[in-house]
Prior knowledge:
With 328 residues, chain A is an all-alpha fold.
Amino acid sequence: MALFLLGVILFLILNITLGSINIPLPETVKILFRAADTDTAYQSIIWQIRLPRALGALLSGAALAVSGLLLQVFFRNPIVGPHILGISSGATFAVALAMMGSYLIGMTYVSPLTLSLASFLGAMVVMVIVIAVASKVRDVITLLVIGLMTGYVASALSSFLIAFAQSENVFRFVIWTMGSFSAMTWDKVSLLAGAGIILLIGSYLLAKPLNAFLLGENYARSLGVNVKMFRYLVIFFSCALAAIVTAFAGPVAFVGLAVPHLARLALGTSDNRVLIPASVLAGAAVTLGCDLLARMLFSPVELPVSATTSLFGAPLVIFFLIKGKTAL
Amino acid sequence: MIIRTDKLKVGYGKKTVVSDINLALLAGQFVCLLGPNGSGKSTILKTLVRMLAPLGGEVFLNDHNIHELSSREIARTTAVVLTEPVSPGLMTVYDIVMLGRHPHTGFMGKPTALDTEKALEALRRVNAANLAARYFSELSDGEKQKVMLARALAQEPKLIVLDEPTSHLDARHRIEVMLILRQLTQEKGVTVIASLHDIDLALKACDVAVLVKDGEILACGVPEDVLHEEIVAQLYGLENANFSARLGGVELKSRQQGAVVFVVAGGGTGAGIYRALARQRLYLATGILPVNDIDYQIAQSIGLDVISTPAYEAPQEASYQAALRQVKRATCVIDSGFTVGSQNLPNLELLRAALAAGKTTLTLRSPDEARALFSADRLHCARDYFELISAIRKTIG
């Protein structure tokens, strides 16, 4: 756990210090503490670009990891991630609609905030559909399949739009679908922080029934868990966490799937009272690290963040699974 | 009265599985549900703990309709052990048992000293304290079942509902689980209701047996009252096996045509021979057995041709003559090595007659004892069942 915290701090410092413009570490520290005698150009790079971006990555990583953890326990399935219920597909479709649809009605520019809003709405619409369905079906596997199918429908609709769109719009759209923290501003970070922290605390309060769910739905019920209520809450928290990240950074792959495994295997427990805080820290550290790589590997060309999360995340999970115990 | 059902009808959706269930379980009772696969035992149990909604009728827990109780209230009274396998990931045995404290702990589930004590006590009660630090997923089936039982106990229930708690377990764990359950009912006054597949274990451990078949409760009561041959045969549709209430177990029936083997037995010495030879698909006859002899009971259960005689008397002449006829028909006659006393001298005569008639006669007695009793060379002494079976096979071909 301490290691995870250390990782967060280390990567936070690296993310602020490193970049295509080299700012020496002492200078960075001075700027962060708002010392008087610093370069104003450096000041704005750090305060306006790197710090919000790093904090955005940190919060997104934490949110995605916890979202993935909730769903993995809820579905009793280790290969479930935050986007499994069609959240990202819903968001993607909404963004596609906003990007390409607005040109059709004659608009030439779509503001990033509009895209964020569209993405969030798309995710929420899917979430509402899933929750409505959740009240009808008895077992969670059916729910999982329905989530997947909803996702496919949204993806199909996106494909429709792409087929009719102009190529430069398609390029912009495809880049968006791979996720990036490059557009983080203080406004977005504060929204992300405000909603994210509330949702993370809410998720932590679910730790006790989540633990009971480790034995399966029937045992959880026999232990006094109000399964119906719990089902709504898990879907709400996990979807909302994924939705706010997707709104500001696009669909960031893999963090939500991989980080809960890393936390579990590193700590050797499935106790969610431990795993939720651990996933917050591990998710933050991993995402900061991946964003750093995305920026630095082929600097000044920036990679989509999903490329690095998947490229480095997948082998890491395989390594841990082979070395340690394969388990939820 | 812990739990009571009133005209309960259980099933899934529109499909009724069992109807008109009227049960009343007292504190400290060990109740078992018996019945063939798919008869609705699990459906009844799941309805009792509100995992399924009843299709009709009502369930009362401590005189409250369970549909008016909260999940937590039910969880504080009732614990369940299900058949479904659990894979809780990286949870230790202690963690799992501690989950049983769920209905008693606070909002975040932080265990108090009392919770810890209760969890450890539950583990000790199922003889699994040594497993506490192990990961649950690493345990054997038997150990897992004991841990799930400990988890149920940690819940401090008044009622434990178990769905086939002894399936998939080896003999040791099967008996251990039943003993733990019985101890719970007797020492802590916990009511146990379990579906079981072992009629013999049920007969020996339970206070009440409930027989479920074809959508109804076939019978319900003290096992000794309820479990007799006909009803058990009806319950499971047994055709090639017999349940014996006196023996408390099931014997496989054997009624084969062909060469006759006559076994002279008594006092339990015949049991092994009957079972060993029944598996060899031989036509078996035995006698002369008093009706109070254990060999008589077993021979009846397996379905041998039994020549009997009333209890506590020397064999009647008619029985002797009947036995003699069988001996003369037989290809092979076997002496089980029964104890010879004043009441069974005719059995010795039967063997001597067989020898005199030149029948292949085998004995399980030692050569010295055999010579002293029969003074004949034609008698084959078999040291064990293997030699006995081989010799018979050789004779019959």
